[in-house]
Specification:
Blueprint: H1 4-30, H2 34-62, H3 70-95, H4 99-112
Helix pairs in contact: 2-3, 3-4
């Protein structure tokens, strides 16, 4: 019988290996190096945190309280999340030197939802 520590360590190694494989496949798909990949993950993390903080701040700034109906809060937060996220994403990407990657990313998203026309030069398959 193996100690539980050894069993736990083997499980962690197996799971961390799966994450490593996933990260490796993303790097290949995005055609980026390790440094760029790390910066891209940082952009996503900072943007998510900043957008959540901003949506909470905006609902407070608007004057919502605990008595405000949940649907009003939801609509304001969704608006901030949908539109604010895009602006924050590009801003953080610019600050971390990853603007070109995220601008291509944004163009694909906007094309898929029909807000931007696909051009021959900018249409790329992922």
């Amino acid at each position: 019988m193996q100690p539980s520590f050894v069993v736990a360590l083997r499980r962690f190694h197996t799971k961390s290996n799966k994450v490593g494989v996933m990260f490796s496949s993303l790097r290949k798909r995005w055609k980026v190096g390790k440094k760029e990949f790390t910066l891209i993950l940082c952009v996503f993390a900072i943007t998510g945190f900043a957008t959540a903080w901003l949506s909470r701040s905006v609902t407070g700034w608007v004057g919502f309280t605990s008595e405000t109906h949940w649907s009003a809060k939801l609509l304001v937060r969704l608006a901030v999340l949908l539109f604010g996220y895009q602006a924050i994403l590009l801003t953080v990407a610019f600050l971390l030197g990853q603007f070109s990657f995220f601008w291509k990313f944004e163009k694909r998203v906007l094309q898929r939802i029909g807000l931007m026309k696909a051009t021959d030069a900018s249409s790329t398959k992922s």
